[in-house]
Amino acid sequence: MAIIQIKQVTKTFGEKTALQSVSLDIPEGRIFGLLGPNGAGKTTLIRIINRITIPTSGMVLFEGRPITDEDVARIGYLPEERGLYRKMKVGDQAMYLAQLKGMSRSDAQRELKAWFERFGAQDWWNKKVEELSKGMAQKFQFITTVVHKPSLMILDEPFSGFDPVNAELIRQEILRLKAEGATIILSTHNMESVEELCDEIALINKSRLVVTGGTEEIRRRYGEDNVEIEYTDALLERRTEVVPRAGANARLAELIAQGVTFHGFKEVIPRMNDIFIKLVTEGV
Q1: What is the pLDDT of residues 37-48, one digit of tens each?
Q2: Which domain holds residue 104?
Q3: Which of 3, 32, 178, 214 has a beta carbon 3.0–4.6 Å from 28's, enabling a disulfide?
Q4: Which sign does the torsion angle of CA 226, 229, 233, 238 carry?
Q5: Same-domain check for residues 130 and 245
Q6: Are both 98 and 196 inside the same structural domain?
């Protein structure tokens, strides 16, 4: 079942077209990667889903009906442009944002305390936001995005600026939230994270939808039908060869005749980074 259905959405700003007839289904309980180069239209689409801006034409459905402001209250949105009240105390701001999403004061306090403990941030409560490092502030904003247990979370570049340890912490939290039933739209340029986390993706380029589908299915679709052979030759040098699948049997026969020691034989599946570059630069 799709939690979000985007139907023929077009958005223009004067003579500029930010989105052109984009249609997408975002399945419930999955991590959906929204990809594209800068200026492709991703942020415009995210703002339309959040009803920050209205499409010129087309519509967005939430659970099968036109999305409303009440539905938006069930969305957790972490924008790429982080925005916090720097002079306000962390605890006060966290409580304010949680209650703004409909949580009672007691529920907000309980859930926030649990999140702060999970992130080892118990001593942040009485600090001002301006006293936090960039990484600490980003973790705090992640907490305020998800504390009300939204059914849909939209995370725009959630790993930006994090060191590897904290990036891994956020990755694990995203997987945990998915396991608990949340749907997550992940907008990122980090293709490694796309491969690790996303069940499905959509790539937007120059305002249009270029490709959508399962992550592994897309990787295989854009492969070149090659295989990789690993072996140690007669000089005891370890080697790796990539050959077309059609010629693999002949090459294996040659190597067997040479008496090599085989270590592996596997299909070559392109990385998402290579597919992203190919689709964006070549317009495939």
Answers
A1: 998 999 999 999
A2: 83-146
A3: 3
A4: positive
A5: no
A6: no
